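Protein in question quoted for reference:
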Amino acid sequence: MFDKIQSTEFAQINVAYNRVFRPGRLSVGLVLPLEAYAVGAEPSLRGHLDAARKAEDFGFAALWLRDVPFNVPSFGDPGQVFDPFVYLGALATVTDRIALGTSSVILPLRHPAHVAKTAATADVLSGGRLLLGVASGDRPEEYPAMNQSYDDRGARFRDSMDYIRAVGSDYPTHEGAQGILSGGIDLLPKPHGTRLPMLITGGSQQTPDWVAQNGDGWMTYPRSAAAQGRVIVDYRRRVKAAGQPEKPVMQSLYVDIVADPAAPPRPIHLGFQSGVDFLRGYLREIETLGVNHVALNLRFNQAPIDTTLEHLADTVLPDFC
């Protein structure tokens, strides 16, 4: 058993943050689009808004959108195709309760004033349901297309985070590489809650101490239980050493759920194929390791998505509500 630092309280930030992330508990969300599509193919996006409504009705905690400016064929995945902020607005109009998250906005490819304004707008329009995952980006081909350098994206990521935090206050003063705010102008709207909840993805070209100190939580990837337990303990120790309040950890997970509930696991890209019994046990295990939210990606699911969502709602979600 790991010497785990147990979260006791998370900061009160907005509705989504404090519904999705609960100390010592795991919640379950979904990565959009809610459909299966092959490597190198584009999702059809047929019925995507109906699928989002069904996910909310079934009781999933969050919907997650990726920021993929260009379809880079070597990566084999164009994401959900739509711009994430426009899509957040559409989702906010067809849902009422489910959290709406980005996983993740590529800060070095967007001006932080635009990110802050669009994110705050989505947060206000959805009644505080935004979770802003941010990252430094990992597709080198996108950077020259926007006349940006790839090698210094870590520095621009830090500068963007500082800028977005600054414009959350009234008539801010701030000086950074991407702009100077002298206190004579203001950026509206302000977030619905105390601030935009910003979760840092992976390392984002930063030191582990910087990630622990500056994010409102950490978004990471699936690992073995032993490895995941170690990195979560390390993250929370760094948070504590920085004098920060406890912060949540979330992870992604690709799954392909088969009809036989007792079917054993078989590895797939960043996840596994299995029956619901193994999935339920896996989720219980990562909950004990300190994971507060898992975002399931059904891209490689072979059963009809509607059937799988209902199956998960009946057999898995009751343990993680």
Q: What stands out?
A: The mean pLDDT is 95. The CA atoms of residues 174 and 180 lie 6 Å apart. The first strand starts at residue 27 and ends at 31.
